[in-house]
Write a structure and sequence with these properties.
By secondary structure, the protein is mainly β. It has three domains: 36 residues, no CATH class; 91 residues, Carboxypeptidase-like, regulatory domain (Immunoglobulin-like); 697 residues, TonB-dependent receptor, beta-barrel domain (Maltoporin, Chain A). The chain is 6% helix and 57% strand. The chain is built from seven helices and 45 strands. The strands form eight sheets. It has a 22-stranded antiparallel barrel. It has a five-stranded mixed β-sheet with strand order 4-3-6-7-10, with no helix packed on it.
Length: 839
């Protein structure tokens, strides 16, 4: 394993090719390492509650299989570990009830909830083998293990961090939780938690301001992700769906996670009568460890915190009411002092020195609450009613003066002034001012239904949304280069000092706007699914349609009303072959009606007539499941094509998106995604991903150019391992390589004049963890007996200390008067210590 890391270090830091001899050594080392790993037990977990015909919990039900068993507690709950990747028959018996038998075939590490009802009259035998994930596989959905999410190392660990190891998902900023999928931008991704859509802040400009993702990983039970071609039930966005399910607790449990970057604690429990369950999580995060490691010296005082709760009350077996609530407070206080960036070549080194005055104070307050009532009419019909409210109050205030020197660096080794700027090629200053405030209130009410008839399933929904957004945008920037004020872009040239300039001075950028915008939306969908057979092959059909009507109005805004229809379909077939193959094809129209940010043009003015961006998706996928080294593996491949019209062009700077608020472009995207996952090391799941993407746009018929998210190649891996003779010592390696994005151009520049790319993004994060207590290592006495799980570990972020850049700062050379791009580097190598516990 360490040979692999050394070879990767050579590539990441020196960009030297790996020779054939080294490649053979790498392959041999990997095979030997795998062969010498001990085969530890591979298990899955079945848990649930057993009720009788009167919906009363049944205590002391015996649950047995060939080599193990358990009993239900006073609440009728049980949990049982069974062997994975094989058929296991569980037998449920009780002195007062009839016997139940069910067969399970689950993946390694999977947790499956099974809640049978025991009868006093009729013998019950379930002969159908329950296999995990089949429905999601035919829908083209990737299911991620919540335990992998909690353990994967990363500067911004969580669900989004794990998504970045999947093909087609990219983000070149480790401090950000945003991600782009298959050529889309950050605003094109749907996120649901327990069927409730969640939102992200509006005003965030950089990754280090973001704070916490909405998703609390300690509360997560299931994670599903679709990178495109998703069904009609999943909403009106162009790129992807992230569908999160929070836990329904069945016993008392506390989870805690502490590190130098913050802390997270969650508590869950269920009442004795099994009617009420609750899970509450609180988090605090401090990015100072990462931000203070960057080249800019700062006084940095962040405070990112939130508290979430998910509560469920079962009024009866037919009606359940749940509440999901979240309150977050993110404060970002930033006071830069100095910065020195060295760049150029060994023969011609250059440095930028910056001295700062001023500060930035940002706040993002979010309150979110949602009720969901579920009525189980019968075994075949389920009705839901969901009502939610989201309020965000955001403040972005800054006044920062930056005075810079650009010059040649002393490169004489041994000289006492080595590394210092000896000759100034450029001097200047920049003053940035901002007073941006936003208050958004978004209210939703939705009815959903799910009806099953034989092999047919019909799903439908009707949803109303009101978005009330009040926004004040005041931003200006004054740029002084070589002692002369720089004129705004596209203005008449300033020929100073050769020709006197007598016109009034203007800021380089100046945006001022105040908006009160109201958007009312009515959305609906209906879809049909069916399982059938063609000969000896299994097939699945899905067809659906979405419709959305929206009206934009507000103070000083002319009212606009638009409607779109979005038909979609999927077909999957599992041939009766010796090899385990599944083929999928999906196609459809995907519209993205504009959200507030897409309606606001670069001057801050709301344009109500902006149309929904339209994309026609074609996706062809294949899943090939096979055995290697007598362990399960799966190769997933998808090719896709998107034809986009009515495109609303945008610029991307760090994580801030600014739209033209005009439908003046057409675009396309196509690519190939591949992922190989399985047990490369016995008892663990790892995967390797590859993605190829090309996406271009044609703005106003000026010709096709790369879109801001045109990231051509991607390689990523999540590798889990342990020391064979010390299985409690575990290793998690997270690797990402992305080719460079188009970007780094001066602000408000014409993209047709700047099509240079940022350098390739290379990053490796390593986590080493020692397990003191876990499910296979329990204690009945001593201080460890109170823990269900206890681990200590060390994490190294960016272990090869690669200098990745996210944007460029542009300064002017006094001699040539040309603008020079100065890279803004991301975080260097950082060490973190972490402990997790469960009791």
């Amino acid at each position: 394993m360490w040979e692999i890391i050394l070879l990767l270090k050579r590539y990441f830091t020196e960009n030297k090719p790996i020779t054939l001899l080294k490649a053979k050594l790498l392959l041999t080392t990997t095979l030997l390492f795998t062969l010498f790993n001990l085969s530890f037990a591979q298990t899955a977990t079945v848990k649930g509650v057993i009720l009788d015909e009167n919906k009363t919990p049944v205590e002391n039900v015996n649950i047995k299989f060939n080599s193990g068993g358990t009993k239900t507690n006073s609440n009728g709950f049980y949990t049982l570990d069974i062997p994975s990747n094989q058929d296991v028959s569980l037998v449920f018996t009780h002195i007062s009830n009839q016997r139940i038998e069910s067969t399970f075939n689950l993946k390694n590490g999977e947790i499956f909830e099974f809640n049978p009802v025991m009868s006093t009259v009729v013998e019950q035998i379930a002969t159908v083998t329950i296999k995990s994930g089949q429905r999601k596989e035919i829908e083209g959905i990737t299911t991620l293990d919540p335990e992998a999410i909690r353990k994967i190392p990363g500067a911004n660990a969580g669900v989004e961090n794990l998504l970045l190891t999947l093909p087609g998902v990219s983000n070149n900023n480790e401090l950000s939780t945003q991600y782009s999928v298959r050529g889309g931008n950050f605003d094109e991704n749907l996120v649901y938690v327990n069927d409730i859509e969640v939102y992200r802040p509006f005003l965030v400009r950089s990754g280090q301001q973001e704070g916490l993702s909405f998703v609390n990983t300690n509360m997560v039970q299931n994670v599903d992700f679709s990178a495109g071609g998703f069904q009609a039930k999943y909403g009106d966005k162009l790129s992807s769906v992230l569908d999160i399910t929070y836990k329904n607790p069945y016993q008392f449990e506390v989870n805690a996670d502490f590190s130098l970057l913050g802390a997270s604690v969650s508590v869950e429990n269920m009442s004795k009568d099994s009617k009420f369950s609750a899970i509450v999580g609180a988090r605090y995060r401090d990015n100072a460890l990462l931000v203070n490691a960057k080249e800019t010296e700062t006084n940095y005082r962040p405070a990112f915190g939130d508290i979430q709760g998910y509560f469920t009350y079962r009024f009866s077996n037919k009606f359940h009411l749940s509440f999901l609530g979240n309150a977050s407070l993110n404060k970002y206080n930033y006071q830069p002092q100095t910065r020195q960036t060295n760049f150029g070549t060994l023969a011609d080194p250059v440095a930028l020195l910056v001295y700062y005055e001023g500060q930035e104070k940002d706040q993002y307050h979010t309150l979110f609450g949602a009720f969901k009532g579920t009525y189980f009419v019968n075994d075949d019909l389920t009705l839901d009613l969901i009502a939610s409210t989201y309020n965000t109050q955001e403040q972005e205030h800054f006044d920062i003066l930056a005075q810079y020197r650009l010059g040649e660096v002393n490169a004489n080794i041994g000289d006492e002034n080595l590394g210092e700027v000896e000759y100034s090629e450029g001097i200047g200053g920049q003053l940035n001012h901002g007073r941006n405030d936003l208050d958004a209130l978004i209210t939703n009410i939705e009815h959903k239904g799910n009806f099953k008839l034989d092999d047919h399933r019909i799903e439908w929904s009707l949803k109303y949304t009101n978005e009330d957004i009040r926004d004040r945008l005041v931003e200006w920037e004054v740029v002084d280069s070589i002692g002369f004020s720089v004129r705004p872009p596209n203005s008449a040239p300033n020929e100073q000092p050769y020709v006197p300039y007598t016109e009034p001075l203007e800021p380089y950028q100046n945006v001022r706007a105040t908006n009160h915008t109201i958007i009312n939306r009515i959305q609906a969908y209906g879809q049909w699914s069916k399982r059938s057979d063609i000969g000896s092959s299994e097939v699945w059909y899905n067809a659906g349609i979405r419709v959305q009507n929206w009206t934009v109005s507000g103070h000083g805004i002319s009212k606009s009303n638009q409607t779109v229809f979005s038909p979609r379909g999927q077909f999957s077939i599992k041939p009766d072959w010796e090899k385990d193959m599944l083929f999928r094809v999906a196609a459809g129209y995907y519209y993205q009606p504009p959200f507030y940010r897409e309606l606001r043009d670069p001057n801050g003015v709301v344009q109500p007539d902006v149309k929904a961006q339209k994309s026609v998706h074609f996706v062809l996928g294949n899943d090939y499941s096979f055995k290697m080294w007598n362990r399960p593996f799966k190769l997933t491949s998808e090719v896709y094509y998107k034809d986009l019209t009515d495109v609303n062009p945008y610029t991307l700077e760090n994580v801030r998106i600014r739209y033209r608020a005009e439908n003046i472009a057409v675009a396309y995207a196509y690519g190939l995604d591949m992922r190989l996952n399985g047990e490369f090391v016995p008892g663990t799941e790892s995967w390797f991903s590859f993605g190829f993407l090309k996406t271009e746009e044609n703005i106003n018929n000026r010709g096709y150019i790369a879109r801001p998210t045109d990231q051509r190649l991607k390689f990523a891996a999540l590798f889990q391992d342990y020391v064979p003779n010390v299985p409690s010592l575990k290793m998690y390696l997270n690797l990402v390589y992305n080719t460079g994005l188009p970007g780094g151009s001066p602000s408000y520049a014409d993209p047709y004049n700047y099509q240079t790319r940022l350098p390739d993004y290379k990053r490796a994060d390593l986590g080493v963890q020692y397990v003191l207590v876990d499910a296979n290592k329990q204690f009945t006495n001593g201080w460890k007996k109170r823990f269900k799980e206890l681990t200590f570990g060390v994490e190294i972020y960016n272990i090869f200390d690669v200098q990745n850049s996210i944007t460029n700062t542009w300064v002017r050379d006094v001699n040539s008067k040309r603008a020079i791009a100065i890279p803004n580097y991301l975080t260097p190598r950082v060490f973190n210590v972490r402990t997790t516990m469960k009791f």
